[in-house]
Specification:
By secondary structure, the chain is of the alpha/beta class. It has 16 helices and 14 strands. The protein has two domains: 168 residues, Aspartate Aminotransferase, domain 1 (Alpha-Beta Complex), CATH 3.90.1150.10; 249 residues, Aspartate Aminotransferase, domain 2 (3-Layer(aba) Sandwich), CATH 3.40.640.10. The strands form three sheets. Strands 4-10-9-8-7-5-6 form a seven-stranded mixed β-sheet, with helices on both faces. The longest helix is centred in the C-terminal third of the chain and has 24 residues.
Length: 436
């Protein structure tokens, strides 16, 4: 059986002394010691990356199964992106004025995602969501936003409601309470968020119908490769929004990686507004939001609402993003899907042979291995999992050279091969059967 957490933590810290020392020294000048909260300590400090590999300051190499939180479809530093960035550096990094990179990437997004007729750019997925919610309220004149318990939409106050609420505060399964994720969020913000359960059409119907006069929009995180949510449920939500005159916002910040046209293409839905990020920047900080022309035209200035920022739509991001998206062709997505299916089947086989209860949830090229034998339909199912086992597997896989945080939202990338997947599975089986 897997080594104990105490043993694995000791082995991990002892073998990564430079990361441990840098983390401790960072506490003098940064709250918490560093900028990334990754769920393990000390964090691995990465000094370079190439293809599907990360290299830390202690000299270890890892296969990267996280890909910067689902961002990197093509792996690290793909040639087209590097060339695009090199050209920009030689010609001025940022201009403080409109640039010629705006229209080409906007055209690509509008052609790629059929629901988007016009698009604007921001610096992050969080900013994209913030602007989309403001736009929905401005367009409808209604104050409230509905979201799903467990759905993640970035770090703006509106979004940080009921992401992972304590169950003793969360309310009933059918009518969850709106619970602030952190201190410092105003009560007025909390009062304007309506929380709904995933996978319960009857409850969603009732909540939306009762609040239809106040809800401007529903924002939807498909929880790709994390929860088991049938497409039929998403279609029901979209249809109900149309019936009640509520805008539907599809958060594709992560899920654009599951299909060339995003999760909405897989499910066959037509959102009013879509939020984007990650993949759209090719590794650079980015966000974007787009939708139907009659809604987006409010952002022109004449509609009484706008968005902007010193670095929004900067040429480095747009050039890198366009290069990344153009190279992430439908054929690349087929490759990622094939690797994902191999990984999914292999995970199930390894857990079965090792007599470990696990449920593998996947969407095309992103998946999670949950430490449970039960279905994973919503946030409250997630809370019941064996978190100690997840941590032990994470540390064991680090020691085996695989960067796969708690086996959650693992992703494939273009440089990977069947051998990459098979090596991961062999390492996992070794970790699962290691003894003290």
């Amino acid at each position: 059986m897997v080594k104990s957490a105490e043993t694995l933590e000791r082995l991990f810290v002892e073998s990564r002394p430079k990361s441990a020392a840098l983390f401790e020294s960072g506490k003098d000048v940064m709250p918490g010691g560093g900028m990334k909260s990754l769920g393990y300590s000390p964090p691995l400090y990465i000094e370079r990356a190439e293809d599907c590999y990360l290299y830390d300051i202690d000299g270890y190499r890892y296969v990267d199964w996280i890909n910067n939180a689902c961002t990197l479809v093509l792996g690290h530093s793909p040639t087209g992106v590097v060339n695009a960035l090199t050209d920009i550096v030689q010609n001025g990094i940022v201009f403080g004025a409109p640039n010629t990179y705006e229209k080409p990437i906007a055209e690509h997004i509008c052609q790629r995602i059929s629901s988007i007729e016009k698009v604007r750019f921001t610096n992050s997925g969080t900013e994209a969501v913030m602007n989309a919610l403001r736009l929905a309220r401005a367009y409808t004149g209604k104050p409230k936003i509905a979201k799903f318990e467990g759905g993640f939409h970035g770090t703006t106050d509106d979004a940080e409601i009921s992401i992972a609420p304590p169950l003793d505060e969360a309310g009933s399964d059918e009518a969850p309470n709106a619970v602030a994720e952190y201190k410092g969020i105003n009560q007025g913000t909390i009062d304007n968020i309506v929380v709904m359960p995933y996978n319960d059409s009857e409850a969603v119907d009732l909540i939306l119908t009762e609040n239809q006069e106040e809800i401007a929009a529903v924002i939807y995180d498909p929880k790709s490769g994390n929860y088991e949510i049938p497409h039929e449920f998403l279609r029901f939500v979209v249809d109900k929004c149309k019936e009640l005159g509520i805008l539907f916002i599809m958060d594709e910040v992560k899920s654009l990686r599951v299909s060339y046209g995003g999760f909405q293409e897989l499910a066959g839905v037509d959102p009013d507004i879509t939020t984007l990020g990650k993949l759209v920047g090719g590794g650079m900080p980015v966000g974007a939001f787009g939708g139907k022309s009659h809604i987006m035209d409010m952002m022109s200035g004449a509609g009484g609402i706008s968005s902007g920022g010193t670095y929004s739509g900067n040429p480095m991001t747009l050039a890198a993003g366009l290069a990344h998206m153009e190279e992430a062709t439908p054929e690349v997505y087929e490759h990622l899907k094939a690797l994902g299916e191999r990984l999914r089947q292999g995970l199930e086989d390894v857990f079965t042979r090792s007599n470990v209860a696990a449920r593998v949830v996947y969407t095309e090229n992103i998946m999670s291995a949950h430490m449970t034998a039960d279905p994973v339909r919503n946030y409250r199912d997630i809370v019941k999992f064996d978190r100690d086992m997840r941590r032990r597997l994470m540390l064991g896989m680090f020691l085996e050279g695989h960067y796969a945080r708690e086996l959650q939202e693992m992703t494939t990338s273009a440089p990977m091969t069947n051998e990459t997947v098979d090596d991961f599975l062999a390492s996992l089986e070794k970790v699962l059967n290691d003894k003290e």
